[in-house]
Amino acid sequence: MAVKLTKSELKRQKDALKRFRRYLPTLQLKKQQLQMVIRQVEARLAEQERLRRQRLDGAAPWLGLFAEEFPFADWLKVSRLETDTANIAGVEIPVLRALEFATAGHDLFLTPPWVDEALLLLADLARLDVEVGLLRRQVERLDAELRVTSQRVNLFEKVKIPEAIEGIRRIHIYLGDQQTAAVVRGKIAKSNLLRRMGET
Question: Which residues contact 34 (CB under 8 A, 6 or more apart)?
């Protein structure tokens, strides 16, 4: 990095160093928050996936009943799906606000007895699928923001702050050398002047 060896550049480097040191703790805190939130969301995601597997495993013995000839089309529809966004550590993530299903009215005497339970299971599985999808999107967005924040933390810690410190060090050395050279030149000039005055 080319640094001008002047007092104005020294001030600019010192101001930049102050700014980097002031922003770095904020970035580190954001990184920690993102890591904590990601762990929480991943735990919720694992729990929802476990619940989904558990529901499917519990229903496996009677899922073959869906092979019966029965008009299931349009018996379970999403009547309301409402999502929103939440701000977590500066990241907009999708969240589920509401999910409601409408079931077709059916004659209890004409439908098999397991249909009601099957519709509840399908609604539960659909809800879990929506929640799992949203949680995965949350993790993706939070991971992307964590990568960017980590890059910024590394940029400040490993590049910008050391560059500013090195620039300040080089400018101090140069200005110190210039000051020493000026003192030496002044003493030489004074001794030359005294010598000339003594010769006359």
Answer: 88, 89, 91, 142, 145, 146, 149
Residues 6+ apart with CB under 8 A from 20: 156, 160, 161, 164
Whole-angstrom Cα distance, residue 101 to residue 76?
Answer: 7
Token reading at 77: 């529809």
CATH architecture of 7-186: Orthogonal Bundle (1.10)
The count of residues in the chain is: 200
Domain boundaries, the chain: 7-186
Give the tokens for residue 102: 């409408």
Residue corresponding to tokens 């000839």: 69
Instruction: Measure CA 15 to chain center.
Output: 28
Q: Are 39 and 146 in contact (CB under 8 A)?
A: no
120-179 confidence digits (pLDDT tens): 888 898 899 999 999 999 999 999 999 999 999 999 999 999 999 999 999 999 999 898
